[in-house]
Amino acid sequence: MTVKQINAEPRPKIPYEHPDARRYLALFKENLIRTVVKKARYPRHDADIQAQFNQHNGDLRQQCEQLVRYVAEAFNHYAVWDYSHAYYPGRPSQQNARMDAMEGVSRVLPTLAAWLNANGDSPLLGLNGTSLDVAEILRKSFLAGTQPQHKGYWGEIQDYDQRICESADLALALWLSRAWVWDRFTAEQQQQVQRWFQQVNHCKTVDNNWHLFPLTVQIVFKALTGEDQVEHARYQRIKAFYVGDGWFRDGAKGNYDYYNAWGFFYSLYWLDRIDPTFDPEFISPSLAAFVANYRYLFTPQGLPFFGRSLCYRLAAAAPLLAAIDQEDPLLAPGEAKRAFSTSLRYFIGQGALRNGAPTPGLFADDFRLVDNYSGPASSFWSLRALNIALFSGERSGLWQAEELPLAVEQGDFDLMIPAIDARFIGVFATKEVIVTFRSEYTTEQTPLTRRLLTQSTTDRLLERVSGRARRPKNNLLRKGITCYTSKMSHFF
């Protein structure tokens, strides 16, 4: 196998990864504020939503509607300061408590906006029957978050700042809701909102999938205002990570993992939907190439997960939904629907939603599987497949389609993916899919270094006091594990 060589840039020293005394003081301060303003946990509908998704013959569209109602009601409970922040319960990230609370908004608003895009001015009812004005929630959030004098101001964006990441989700929400939010702002309000987002045009990012975040903001504001500030050099760098067969490496020395699904192709799909002239000659064919082999990973009960950010697991079907919206002739809407429905039902039916949010784990909370950059609301990236479904389901035929069998439900298979030097094996009799990588990320390993580590009592205590994550790194790809099964036995 010939490995594509990608020129690497030195990884910068990122402040939140190397906190000094001043940063620890800020962490402690924000942790105290969180203690004062956070709301009680909201488990009111956990059992109901789990029961909904245990109905394996239930209507998928109705189940997705119930999921939105579940999320929206809890968000309304946790949100503070005119919906600019939401303090969800859970363990902190490496950032600070306020940044974690910003994620509680930025990662939920795209779902609300996608629902609004599909349903218009109709009120959204929480599962408790409370009527929620989604457009008004979005308007309040954007005006509060971008107003420097408001208590909920999202802050100044710095180089390598987590706000760069969150700005992309916020910009997407603004585009999806534009007819009800942006278009109803005054000229002055539009300028205020745009000023906050334009900060990303002057910020450095880590050299990986993060280039997609400023690009998303820039493409959105080009669509909203006509001003073209798109950094095409960032986009060319993203394309440099493409290695073939639909797969990207996440940075010059990064992983091949599920970020291809819920990172790269999710963002590329939206770039294409927002501006269909942007680069259809690359985006559509590369998505089709990815889906052609990626579709084999789905089973009725689980996926062979490899890499990091496993808490985003509900978003695994996002590229399949994107592909049928782009009318991929090789993927039937019924197969995409089955992949999406079985992944939702399997995980949510086993308890993947708690207290109004996706849990930080595969099923219930499992902090061995939570990266230090993830906070209480980070797992809302799990709703990325749902966002595409809400936006495109009527048009793509998703809701109307009859479910069709997955590849492993049709027979055995054994195929190679040369670009990533991986072998996909499907076993019809057991409905199991196994992925084996034929090269390793590291040769420095022992049986002990390959295992999942548990956080020490000392680190747990320091994490609680400081408000900063201190969890072990448990990316099994990086530990030297080369074989993964959809039964997910490595994680239990």
TrEMBL record:
DUF2264 domain: which residues? 61-405
InterPro entries for this protein: DUF2264_N, UCP014753
Name of one Pfam family that matches: DUF2264
The name this protein carries in UniProt is DUF2264 domain-containing protein
